[in-house]
Design a protein that fits this description.
single chain, 204 residues, mainly alpha, two-stranded antiparallel ribbon, 10 helices, 9% strand, disordered N terminus
Length: 204
């Protein structure tokens, strides 16, 4: 069991020396539930635009809870006396842990696709499809008028692609669903993102 001990620290709020007792991962998870701090994990997931429909949502959520427990163990101070400072510390650890896992999932998917379709054309499309702005924006369109204008601008095949993309299907799964090659999926993605940029930004 992971634990840390911080002996002989001075509690400035009370004005006397006190021993900060050993804290464990188990106690950190209990603290998470007792103080209803799953919200920190959900906040980090939302900030990173990981929706409940994401294929790894449950795994990321669990890892976020574990990151909270690790923060509870590693925090150099009194958790109960310094709640605000601890929550800020815990949120940072949760956010960076989920971000790290998210980046690894992106790299693993791209590596699988490159190894399966190892060709110069595939490498080109993989490089061309990177557009973080469009990916984030398309998953967060809430204005009906904007959505309607985007639908009108897209072809039928592009709308089919977008529907699967928003359901968190991988590029390989989209190719299978639409009965097309992976390079064709990358080309669809590039066009959809380009159209979205033209519609919703001043600098397409």
């Amino acid at each position: 069991m992971v634990s840390l001990t911080y002996p002989g620290r001075r509690n400035n709020h009370e004005g006397f020396d006190t021993m900060i007792t050993e804290r464990t991962m188990r106690e950190g998870l209990i603290d998470l539930c007792r103080h209803d701090q799953e919200r920190l994990v959900k906040m980090a997931l939302a900030k990173l635009r990981v929706s409940k429909f994401h294929r790894h949502y449950d795994d990321f959520y669990q890892e976020g809870c574990i990151a909270y427990a690790r923060a509870y163990v590693a925090f150099k101070g009194s958790v109960d006396a310094e709640r605000d400072r601890f929550y800020a510390f815990a949120y940072k650890l949760i956010y960076w842990r989920i971000l790290d896992l998210l980046k690894k999932s992106w790299h693993q998917e791209d590596e699988r696709q490159v190894s399966t379709d190892a060709s110069p054309a595939t490498a080109y499309h993989l490089a061309a499809m990177q557009d973080p702005w469009a990916a984030g924006y398309l998953t967060n369109i809430e204005n009906r008028q904007q959505w309607a204008s985007l639908m009108r601008a897209l072809s039928l095949r592009q709308r089919e692609y977008l529907s699967l993309f928003l359901q968190q299907f991988s590029n390989a799964e989209i190719a299978k669903q639409l009965h097309i090659s992976r390079p064709s999926v990358y080309e669809l993605r590039r066009h959809v993102f380009a159209i979205a940029r033209q519609l919703f930004t001043k600098d397409p």
